[in-house]
# Entry
Amino acid sequence: MELAGLERVHLAPGEEREVTFRVGPDRLRMLDRDMHWVVEPGAFRVLIGGSSKDIQLRGELTVRP
# Structure
């Protein structure tokens, strides 16, 4: 698990707001055995919440080769 983005949004009690963010290749890249940056195909879980112990939304995105 890795923190890939952080945005603090302050809301009043009962207030709602739509928040959007982009998950591009730079957010999904990792180092391979030869220490080259790569984006591997496969499924990535996306978790959204107040903290890692307070997950409010879950989703999945797929990188195709």
Q: What stands out?
A: The first strand starts at residue 30 and ends at 31.
